Amino acid sequence: MSTLVIVGSQWGDEGKGKITDMLAARAGLVVRYQGGNNAGHTVVVDGLEFKLHLIPSGILYPDTISVIAGGVVVDPAVLLEEVAGLNKRNIDTRGLRVSQSAHVIMPYHKLLDSLEEETRGDGKLGTTCRGIGPAYTDKVHRCGIRISDLLEPETFKARLASVLKDKNIILQRVYEHDPLSFNDVYDSYTLLADKLRPYVTDTTQLIMDANKADRNILFEGAQGTLLDIDMGTYPFVTSSHPIAGGACLGTGVGPTDIDSVVGITKAYTTRVGEGPFPVELSDDTGDKLREAGHEYGTTTGRPRRCGWADTVMLRYAAAVNGLTSLAVTKLDVLTGLDEIKICTAYRYRDTVIEKFPERLDVLAECEPIYEILPGWREDITGAVTLEDLPVAARMYVERLEELSGVPSSIISVGPARAQTIVSKRLPASFQA
Ligand code: IMP
Domain 103-196 belongs to what architecture? Predict the structure, then answer.
């Protein structure tokens, strides 16, 4: 049995949901370790589409425990809505566990997220306005409200009274916004707390016990490496740790207990929100990729910015996450192109750089240097082995592997569970 972390190796939206769903078939536990309902996964099972924001994709398997760990920020109303939506479609959610240490997204977090974005004007970050940044800010500022606080009416009352006093001063004096009513917030969140109570537990202990009992544990990262608060393209990042190390921080699992890290890598690159994006295509090819790949946000519906694969970034993601293999997703989206480009290095002023620059002002000036590969026209959506792929598609994947220095263990050629090529490089305990 083993532990496996799934991380996005780009800017999120790499198709992690499908891979998590697929690997969850072999997992005892599937654990979300960071982020909140800024994430969005689309999973297709037997032709039915499920859109999940907070609940791990493991929920679609009745015998898998799906854990929302302490590193996640939880909007209780969104979580309960998601539970109700799944139940309506006859999905059993009794396997859901929510950490008592997870921080709660409060109404003032959502409000402040939107107001702060408005105030930034042209300098906006392009957040999802779900209250993620403000909730993590309060956690670090030590004025957050945790699920355990929410479940104790007297503790909740005292904490909310103290925090809301400050938040209302900010809302009124900084943003000239109406204050929030203590009673409204208290009453609505107390109701939500009661509904949440059956799912709440000590998830750190749960994960430790599962690890001791030698069960397969799948850690599901949300967003992507370049959106990491420390390792990403700051300030155009999210406020948590999507990288593999985030699995340790957000769950309590020790680094030496992680056996493998699979980097989910879309066959091209997308980004939502603001910030430099060297391989961005603002032409017909970019539009073609957006339409063929349905590149519109699951959470906000925003059109995603599209570009070619960027192996400068991929080498960085490989190092930062300690990737043991890649899962190359959406390879089918590239079908029909005459030629396909891969970015191998950047040109910065008059120098060529092969390492991802740490400074954002440098990245903003980088021009991609491309290698051009032949495209393919054959339909690959039914491929089940590498040999089923046309030579050009195989060459493309091999080149991604060579340039990133990481072998692939999974290739996805369509949204359904079955449209996946799995190699022996995937840890044996996660092979079907
Ligand atoms: P926030 O996470 O809502 O604070 O947004 C910060 C940045 O992360 C923005 O650029 C968002 O578009 C981006 N972001 C947040 N969640 C996701 C995601 O799941 N996929 C892709 N981008 C995301």
Answer: Orthogonal Bundle (1.10)
